[in-house]
Every structure is written in C-alpha cells, then in structure tokens.
Amino acid sequence: MATKPWAEMTWQEKREERFNHWLSAPGVKFVSAESEKLYKERATRFIKAIKLEEPDRVPVMLPVGSFPAYYGGADFHTILYDYNELRRTWIKFMDDFGDMDTFMGPALIPSGRISEALDIKVMKWPGHGVGKDATMQQFVEGEYMNPDEYDKLIMDPSDFNLRVTLPRTAGLFESFKKLPPIRMIQGAMWVGLLAEPDIRKTFQTLMDLSDEFRQWQAAINEVSDLAVARGYPSFRGGPFVGAPYDYFADLHRGTRGIAMDLHRRPEKLLEAIESQLTLQINTLIKNFPMTSCPICLMPLHKGDDTFMSDEQFDKFYWPSLRAVFLALIDEGLVPMPFAEGKYNNRLRQITDTPKSGVVWYFDQTDMGRAKKILGGVSCIVGNVPASTVMTGTRAQVKENCRRLIETCAPGGGYILAGGAHIDKGDIDNLRAMMEAAYEYGTYRPVSAGAAG
User: What is the pTM of this model?
Assistant: First the structure.
C-alpha cells in the first residue's frame, strides 16, 4: 500500500511499489506453496539485477520463441490455426522443462484465421505468402505512407490510421477509404455509413470474428496464467511503446522511404517524431495502471549501427527514445529496449539515463564493451547466439554462457539470455543455459530448494 500520493513519489518509490505488486502476485492461485516460493525467488532475482544489485545468481531468460510448437510435435502453421495445439504444446514444454526463471507463454503468436480474415498485407505467414513449412511470420516492409502525408498524420493520427493506414495494410478495411473524417461523424451519421454495403460488410466481419478472437485469447491466457501459477513470473506487463522514429520507419515509410526523409525532409520528420512522442506519453504512459509486471519490452528496429550515422542517431533517434524512457521511468515502469542488430557505436550515446532506470537487451552487441560502458548505469541482457542454441552442442552453449557470465555478471546487473528467439533445436541446449547460470553465475550459496 502506497504511503503517500502517487504524484508525490519519486520514480524510485513508484518503481518499488510496482516491484512489490509484481512480487505479491495478487489474484494468482499458485499450484503449490513451493511454486509460490519459487515465484518470489525468481522475481526477486530479476528485481535485484535490474537495480544493479547482486542476486543469489544470474537470472536467465531462455530464448524459447516458438520452440514449444516443434518440441511438442506440431509446427508454426499448426499453432496459428489450431489453438488447442497451441495450448497443448506450450504446456507440454512447461511440463517437460521444469526449471526456468521466467516463461513468456505464446502471447506473441498471432491467429492465422484472424490474419486471413483481415487480409493483412504487412505480414506473410506459413501457408499465406510463404510455404507451410516456414517457421515464423515475415514482415512485409513498404511505403504505406506517402512522403507528402506527414502533415495529415500529424494533424489527426487516429483519423489517418483509420482512413489511410488501415486500408493500405489490411484488405478488409479497404471500405474505410470512403469514410469521412472521423471527427465529423456524429450520431445518426454512423447509421447512414452502415447503409454502404462494403462498409457494412467490414463491420459485420469484425463482429463475426469476435468469437474467434475470444478462443485465441483464451488459449494464450490459459498458458500464461498457468505459467505464473507454477511459479514463473511474467517478464512483460507495461505499455507497448517503442522508439518514435521506428513508428514511421517500420510501418509508414519503410527503410527506403525513411532514409530519403532523413535528407529530403528532416524538419518534417522531426516534427512528426515529436508529435508521436507526445501522443505516446499522454495516451499510453501517463497514469499507466498497476499490472502484473512493470517491465516494458521495446523492440528497436532502425537505430542500430548500420541504419544511420552517429550524427543521425543523435538527432533523429535518441532524443525522442530517451524521452520515452524518462516518461516510463517517471511512472515507476522499467523500459527494456531490445536493441536488435549491433549497438557497438551507440553504447556511449545511450548512457544518459537514470542509474538502474533502463534494462538494455542486446542482440549482437559486444557484451564486454556493453558491460564496461553501461555496467554502472543499466542492467544488460544477452546474448547467446540463436545459431549456437539451435545447432550447437550442449558444451558449446555452456561455454558461450560461461564467457558471458564471467564478462558481464561481476557486480550484478546482468541477465543471461539469447540474442534472439529460436524455433527448432535440442531442448538440452536450453537446459544447458540454465545449468550454466547455476554453475558459473552464483554470487553466493543458493538456499536449499532454490534450484526448483
């Protein structure tokens, strides 16, 4: 229970409230007293690492990805369409693996049926754009916003998304091109719009999909709830926000379009970034409710060493991203940017954040340099190569983990994880990651039973 009004707390006090909420797991019916004990030990392990303290040992985030589907005898195509198989394979993985520090569940697995019904244009998935044997979905990048449309988006982002972006990125919403500006629609005008056959069909299809959506969500929620009940704390629960630059680079302009905008219309791009930043802070971050976990996973796509120069990063990427971090931190939330690609040139540029305020999850960045530069500022996470976990030997995985732990763990502030998630491979290689944490990552003697 908070001892003073939320608005009067420091960010550290707000974060402590959220950490305590995470630890107490209100409403969770643990399957056993031992599961509850392990939950608290595991959550405490992560909290201490985030705060740059030494827990009992290095915590581990296994790069599970869609591995449970293949381990359970299914494949990615099957789990997109058969929610019972999605549920079964994820639970089987939990049954067989046992000891983990956290387990994310299948929250990022989309529904193939819903994606088909919406006629999604920005994604290919097994059996839809790529072969049924493909092991994951693929993003289809494109210029879904024209370079002269920045002003329209800035003026009314919701209207632009509904009447422009949606029709271009999902075939079902083609009819929304006919809608008048949403700010102009009142009362009975909605009834008149539904008299238009194709608009009516769009809304009817959305209503018809509601049962499908509930079935898909029920399967995901069942696995996620069971994971927590068995003692695995969730490691994601804050608002889903990202770098404002990526909002335009990913969905709207694409790599080619945004690269031209950096040179041809830099001031307009900066104006749009500032508008998106304000929108994120005011609608997604401020007054964010207390949730099961305060960690905010933030995939970063276009900020790595190869997509822009250091000067461009300083001007277009970092200021707004840092502002998002600070807004999250001020709410007691913990931003965890996933720095996809390499951030070796960025390390000295990203140190300007409150101590222990940010958790940096690295993909291919040099972890020795990351520890040296960020070690006293941020907890760092990573980065056993997915290729090693998928195709290497058990000994190779453990050796890779040993080197990372010896480099990054001293003094605390390190979480062992994969550089990227896996789909296929040997479950013993995932077990090897956990074993490495016990063998090489212990800060002090582990209490009896802590190994699960």
Answer: 0.94
